[in-house]
Structures are given as structure tokens and as C-alpha cells.
Amino acid sequence: MYEKLEEIQKITVSGKAFPARGDRLEIRDRILERIKSIAGKDSIKRLTPIQNQGDHKTQDIIFVLDDNEYLATLRYDNEMTEGAVESLSKHAKKC
């Protein structure tokens, strides 16, 4: 399990220098596909909207790995041409 978490934490994706308007979410989709390939096809439970932070954008994703929920914060550049998992932490389940 820890190897899978380390692999998820190292995810970094680069794309086209100037993506077409319809391809703006390509980087996010590629990161999600990598997480799904590591954690499982139905592992993604929740996505928050992409937030503009000034010089970059962020998005939180909750996914399940081995019956535990984890929160991954994704960081994108403003042009959405690069993205990476910025932080990863265990997410407390709400009862």
C-alpha cells in the first residue's frame, strides 16, 4: 500500500504548450487516469472545482485505496499545461 501511495505522490504530467479550449482539462484527466490505474478503477470518490490561486491552480481529490480514504491536492500552472500531486494525506471518514 505504501508503495502505491508513494507512486501517486510522484505523479507529474506535462502537456501541450498551448492547449485548445476543449483540451484544458486534459492534464487533470491524465492525472486522474494515473491515480485510477494505481488505486483502482472506481477509486475516485470526490472532485472539488479547480480553484485559482493567483500564480497557479489547485484541486482536491478524494480517493479510496485499501479501504482508506486519501485527499490528494493537485497543482496546475495557470495555462493548465502542467500538473502534479502537490500533497497527499489520509482523509478522515465522516460518520
Strand segment count? 6
What's the CATH topology name?
Nuclear Transport Factor 2, Chain: A
Helix content: 10-25%
How far the N terminus sits from the C terminus, by CA atoms, comes to 24 Å
Mean pLDDT: 91
Brief account:
The chain has a single domain, classed as Nuclear Transport Factor 2, Chain: A (Roll), CATH 3.10.450. 23% of the residues lie in helices and 40% in strands.
Can you walk through the features of this model?
There is one protein chain. Helices cover 23% and strands 40% of the residues. With 95 residues, it is α+β, with helices and mostly antiparallel strands. The chain is built from 2 helices and 6 strands, in the order αβαβββββ. It has one domain: Nuclear Transport Factor 2, Chain: A. A hairpin with a 2-residue loop joins strand 4 and strand 5. The two termini are 24 Å apart. It is globular and about 40 Å long. Strands 1, 2, 3, 4, 5 and 6 form a 6-stranded antiparallel beta sheet that branches.
Secondary structure layout plus pairing:
Blueprint: H1 2-9, E1 12-14, H2 26-39, E2 44-47, E3 51-52, E4 56-65, E5 68-77, E6 82-90
Antiparallel strand pairs: 1-6, 2-4, 3-4, 4-5, 5-6
